[in-house]
């Protein structure tokens, strides 16, 4: 048996775009390769028993009380445990190739690949150094750059999600352009999602607008900007914001809700398994992605969250960032200057006031654009084609 290893320092219980993408990636590889092993931090309870054999849980330590360095301890412990797991399995498995979804401080997989001559395919979705800047752990930046270069030098191919990211890595590490492919993220359309029926009319005097955020509860997602924006809305507007997901900054966001007296307006739902999200999207009048400028601007973004919103025919308001130009150009949603609660509130209020004339057009345009340009069924075939070239 020749295995494909899919590896990510990821918790599959989260509602983040990364988890949705990783799950779609697993399903794609499973259809194209007979034997798969998936290495992750955590699994959702809903996973089918017959699938469990494919998964390897990698243990890790996470010391939450050490806020600045807790993430670093988690990363190091995961990498060390992963390397040990790979060494043990190397005695029983024949590895055809490794697909690594690159995250912070990766060294286990590139080192294993180099020591045992394994074919390595890397996917990179962000600038890792920016993650450390967010956590104020700047001292590790030099080491991380060296590890990132080591990873890329040992990879046979690297998939990135934007042309800006490709250019950045080529210029930073001196890599050959032929080593890269630019394949954006997408959404896996399903039959039940294609048939979603939504109502795009609202009684502006008595109707309550249902606002929705789905994703990781992290400051880089701009949730604190969204909560503050709600305080700028006209007090005559009836609305309810549902926040779905979990994450490291949930307590901060809950504190902001309390201090701004928004407890009756904002509801934290918690994590919701992917197959249970449908009712929330069906009832949502506006979906929000107020991503912050930092970390997202240098290389551009290709956020699964926004494609998922659009695939469910939800009117979208998102930050105006590189990679999201299509939102304004194709009238798929409304873009807003990042990091400004007041400007975000203006856009939300404008869409509410013009909902009956604008919402359906925006939602339909977003759905059609996503299905044509960010349909995972199409994009995944590009990835498989690259994998076949590397692994065969």
Oligomer: single chain
Shape assignment: globular
Number of helices: 15
Number of distinct beta strands: 13
CATH architecture of the largest domain: 3-Layer(aba) Sandwich
SSE pattern, N- to C-terminal = EHEEHEHEHHEHEHEHEHEHEHEHEHHH
CATH class type of the largest domain: Alpha Beta
Contiguous uncertain segments of 5+ residues: 131-137
Rg, nearest Å: 21 Å
Query: What is the distance, rounded to the nearest whole angstrom, between the alpha carbons of the first and last residues?
Result: 14 Å
Q: On the 0-100 scale, what is the average pLDDT? A: 88
CATH topology of the largest domain: Rossmann fold
What amount of the residues lies in strands? 15-25%
Major sheet size, sense and barrel closure = 7 strands, parallel
- Please identify which CATH superfamily of the largest domain we are dealing with: Glycogen Phosphorylase B
Describe the 3D structure:
- The chain has 392 residues and is α/β, with parallel strands linked by helices.
- The chain folds into 2 domains: 2-186 and 375-391, Glycogen Phosphorylase B (Rossmann fold, 3-Layer(aba) Sandwich); 191-373, Rossmann fold, CATH 3.40.50.
- Helices cover 42% and strands 16% of the residues.
- It is built from 15 helices and 13 strands.
- The chain has helices at 17-32, 70-89, 108-116, 128-134, 141-154, 163-173, 191-194, 223-230, 250-259, 278-283, 304-311, 325-329, 341-353, 355-373, 376-391, and strands at 2-8, 36-40, 55-57, 94-101, 120-124, 157-160, 180-182, 209-214, 239-244, 266-270, 286-289, 316-319, 334-336.
- The chain has a 7-stranded parallel beta sheet, sandwiched between helices.
- Helix 6 links the parallel strand 6 and strand 7.
- Helix 2 runs parallel beside helix 3.
- The longest helix is centred in the first third of the chain and has 20 residues, at 70-89.
- The chain is globular and about 70 Å long.
- The two termini are 14 Å apart.
- Mean pLDDT is 88; it is low at 131-137.
């Amino acid at each position: 048996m020749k295995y494909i290893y899919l590896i990510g320092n990821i918790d599959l219980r989260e509602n983040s775009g990364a988890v949705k993408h990783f799950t779609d990636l697993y399903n794609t590889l499973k259809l194209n390769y007979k034997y798969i092993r998936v290495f992750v931090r955590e699994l959702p309870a809903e996973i089918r028993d017959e699938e469990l054999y494919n998964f390897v849980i990698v243990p890790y330590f996470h010391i939450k009380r050490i806020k600045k360095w807790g993430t670093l301890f988690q990363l190091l412990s995961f990498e060390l445990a992963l390397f040990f797991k790979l060494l043990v399995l190397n005695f029983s498995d024949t590895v055809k190739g490794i697909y690594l979804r690159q995250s912070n401080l990766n060294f286990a997989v590139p080192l294993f690949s180099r020591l045992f001559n394994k074919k390595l395919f890397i996917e990179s979705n962000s600038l890792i150094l920016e993650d450390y800047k967010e956590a104020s752990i700047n001292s590790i930046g030099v080491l991380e750059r060296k590890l990132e270069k080591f990873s890329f030098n040992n990879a046979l191919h690297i998939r990135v999600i934007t042309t800006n990211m490709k250019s950045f890595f080529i210029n930073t590490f001196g890599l050959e352009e032929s080593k890269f492919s630019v394949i954006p993220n997408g959404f896996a359309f399903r039959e039940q999602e294609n048939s979603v029926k939504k109502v795009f009319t609202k009684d502006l005097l008595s109707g309550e607008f249902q606002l929705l955020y789905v994703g990781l509860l992290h400051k880089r997602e701009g949730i604190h900007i969204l909560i503050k924006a709600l305080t700028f809305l006209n007090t005559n507007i009836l609305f309810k914001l549902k926040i779905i997901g979990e994450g490291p900054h949930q307590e901060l966001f809950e504190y902001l809700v309390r201090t701004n007296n928004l407890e009756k307006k904002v509801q934290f739902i918690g994590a919701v398994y992917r197959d249970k999200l449908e009712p929330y999207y069906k009832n949502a009048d506006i979906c929000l992605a107020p991503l912050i400028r930092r970390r997202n601007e240098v290389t551009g973004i290709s956020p699964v969250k926004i494609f998922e919103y659009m695939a469910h025919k939800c009117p979208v308001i998102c930050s105006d960032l590189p990679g999201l130009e299509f939102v304004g150009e194709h009238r798929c949603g409304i873009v807003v200057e990042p990091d400004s609660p007041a400007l975000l509130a203006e856009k939300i209020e404008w869409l509410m006031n013009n909902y009956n004339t604008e919402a359906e057009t925006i939602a339909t345009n977003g759905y059609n654009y996503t299905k044509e340009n960010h349909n995972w069924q199409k994009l995944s075939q590009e990835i498989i084609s690259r994998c076949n070239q590397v692994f065969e």
